[in-house]
Fold each of these.
Amino acid sequence: MDCKREILNYCHSIGLDTVGFTKCRVYTELEGYLCFRKENLLESEFEEKDIKKRINSCEYMDGGKTIISVAFPYLFKKDHIQKDIKFSLYTRGKDYHKVVEAYLKKICGYIESLGGKTRYFVDSNFLPERYIAFQSGIGFIGKNNMLITKRYGSYVFLGEIITDIEVESDIPLKSKCGNCSLCQTACPTGAICGNRDSNKCMSYITQKKNVDSKWFPIFQGRLFGCDTCQEVCPYNGDIIYSNIEDLRPFNFMERVDLNEIVNIDKSTFIEKYYNTSCGWRGKNIIQRNAIINALMLGKNVEIKNIKSSYIKDYYNRLLHVLKL
Ligand code: SF4
């Protein structure tokens, strides 16, 4: 049996069925596009500024030949969930970095047993992971810039493994967006029209440290992240739910206690929210977003003694916006 089939069989045996392969190489075809975004200030602060680092997958392993892209579905049944105040769907379970890492480590162990060298990544390199997933044939990139897979739509996390084993690459899929523009119309800030400005993406704005007051009215219940462009996508309609139990949402992330988050202390944050997929961003960002939503939506919550000057600044700005 060839190595590719063996690796695929192993992935299937641990419940992963959306796996593809592409060459480890320099993605020169992306350089012009990334330079354009940089020159036109369309990059977000979370993006690596050095374009060479973003396009050269060979930098990550001497003798690396193949990148394996793996999709991890995270959507569970969601008819019952709260709609007015919400965490983005991807944030609700156990920190996906840890969950995905555990799977990738297993796959690496298997590849090493076949004699290959490996290195795995989950949000831990500067490479264009959606483009790599597209090149690996596991989905197409929609107009909303998400990777859209056949079985799970765009509700997937991505992980990559670089190996020195050479296997045949998969064939990229053609875009299926056609004339559809539902995500572009639905986006609350127009971030995916024209040149796609990452700085206008509400998911990014909810994660930024410094948020301009002009965005406060657009939070509209978003506590962290934004699913609008995914929710309207027809390819997210008839999809298969996740089989990864470790990614199942916590109850407290589905039925939000706004009062608790508005007044949250460090120990409650660490005990509960830190272990979720948005915990890495820290207490202040989530507390700030909760206060923005509580005040902008006129929720009946009592904001008690605010100690942090960072939170206090937002609170005062909100009072100013609301002319209270
Ligand atoms: Fe493509 Fe339509 Fe989905 Fe947007 S909503 S990603 S245009 S199919």
Amino acid sequence: MSTSEIYDLIIVGGGPGGFSAGIYAMRAALKTVLIEKGAPGGQMAMSGEVENYPGIERIGGPDLSMQFHQHALSYGLEMVFSEVKEVEPGLAYHSVHLDDGSVLKGYAVILGTGGSSHKLNIPGEAEYYGQGVSYCAVCDGFFFRNKTVVVIGGGDSAAEESLYLAKLAKQVYMVHRRDALRASKILQQRIKAECKIEMIWDSVPVAINANEQGVSSIELKNVKTGQHQDLQTDGVFIFVGFSPNNQLVPSGIHMNANGYVVTDDKCETNIPGIYVIGDLRQKYARQIVIAASDGCTAALAAAHYVENRKAAESDSCQLV
Ligand code: NAP
């Protein structure tokens, strides 16, 4: 790690987007460093099985993460395992402050810090994650073909994912803590029309139970009557909100009302040379393949940006 030189590109976040950016940046001969605070892979590393990454029929999330990591390292990508505290935009270069006080300088910065699903924080949720507890129907729904699943939440995500799961599962129970959905009217109408979806109103999850095969039931409490019920299920899909990890996004960068960063089609923000990829970026869907695609786009755009910056710098030197 060099704190004296200016990197061509600093990538923050070692998920599929960050590694994809690293691969493309190294192939474009950019002097690049990738900073990751935890294990390589991000949310991908926490997925049990991945079955929708094109070209790989089925692979464990941790294994796919290692493959992304190894692929990037094979090009000589420099990795620093550290927590970034601040990204400070500048005119000559951007500065990335690490938790040990060191500061890295880069002409371009790609932020790929992802996002986090809100948690219920009930017994069984963390313990059985990947064994029946999921935060992504598109990723995991396939494992519940002709099975019974419970969806928690009443917003657009819970509604959309319930409709998706209804195409695969035998039965979908949608559990909501009130007696009216927050989801948009059109989704409410579709939920009502889908005979495989049964609503359980005014109820909150209390605990998720499992046996050797994985999740077996969920304990629910009716908030109006106080009564508890143990509902048999093979899976529990939790959609009680999702937040982008936008804490490092410098002030002045445009974000939408939900905290996702707005970029152009090059994944560039309104601050030149700062790019945002993956789940942190405003977009239609959140998938590994989309994050990887963003990483590619941003790295190619950054390569072009850095080349122009250096050309402009050498022109101005010659004029002096
Ligand atoms: P959301 O709109 O915040 O909905 C979260 C749902 O979870 C709400 O129904 C909420 O109940 C419930 N909830 C929250 N905490 C809970 C808890 N501890 N226990 C039980 N239930 C809990 O989140 P979202 O559905 O992920 O959507 C986020 C944003 O993305 C929204 O603006 C949404 O419109 C947008 N979005 C749009 C689309 C689309 O347009 N196609 C698709 C997905 C998401 P209450 O209703 O009682 O608060």
